[in-house]
Design brief:
The chain has one domain. Helices cover 79% and strands 0% of the residues. It is built from 16 helices and no strands.
Length: 339
Amino acid sequence: MTYKALSKYRGFLMGFAILWVMYFHIPLKFATEIGWFTHRIGFYGVDIFLFLSGLGVYFSLMKRPNVLRFYKARLVRILPAYVIVACVSYCLLRLDKASALDFFYYISGIGYWTRHTRFDWYIPTQLAFYLITPLFLFFYKKLGGKKQIIYTAICMSLSVPLCIIMYYTDLIYLWGTAVRLSVFLLGIHTGSLVAQNKKVTKTSLILNIAAFIVGTFLAYYINKCVKEPSYVQSGLNCYPALLMMPSFCLLVSLVLSALGKKLPKLEKVIVSPFEFFGKYSLELYLLHQRLQSIVSKYIGYKNQKLALIITLIVAPLLGMAIKGIRDIISKYKTRKKTV
């Protein structure tokens, strides 16, 4: 068993994560504690995104060391869907409050950092992490072995002083970003392990199982029992995900890998649907909450199922359309070069 299982089942994990986040965004009532807890920590799906995103950018920068090309590739992947959904949602949800400045804050993502009107918090966070990735990897590549682990751990720990500084400078609303810096950097380091096809030792396996169990108990305690101070629920309740989600991703990947060797047809049946949703995870994420708000405003709050159905239909279509346009542009550029 090696860390390459993470790369093989990355699409499955992305699909699971987006469905979990969407599940979290649907208001539900539960009769059981397990049902409540599973729904309550659905936002941990974002930590899966960022962990796998870190893993992905490691490979991206190893293949294309050119920093500007790396930035361009990230923007080309994110911006088309983001701009389309953001513009449509602005017209449908904020046109009565529209102004040039309001639109700028909303679309650019700057509104998230400056506490003005914003479309989303996750995309600005992801772009900020992409911005610092080349700098992190510049020093990471100069080190080797245990030094890389120590360097990564030190950089991950920076989220703690960041949260403290934000607390004393009235920037608690940015804790959701600061806390998740750690899981993103851990994803980059894990990308290195995947690239080296490192074996998952028995010790690593035991530590990952222990991390998942401890993280689960901490997540339950913080999200269920800690009510005061209220700011704990503004980001600090994300810290257990640092233990839970990377270990969850590895353990699930290893189980699926083992299943694939013994029962490949069953493994394919389980993996394929999640891989499909994982392929359009960005579009699903961008659309779902916005459609919930649009349906609520124009049709009625109780139509959560309608918002979900529209999202599941429109998101893949949007993703396919954007990919089709990208392919046409790419072919045009290739022909132009050969002429």
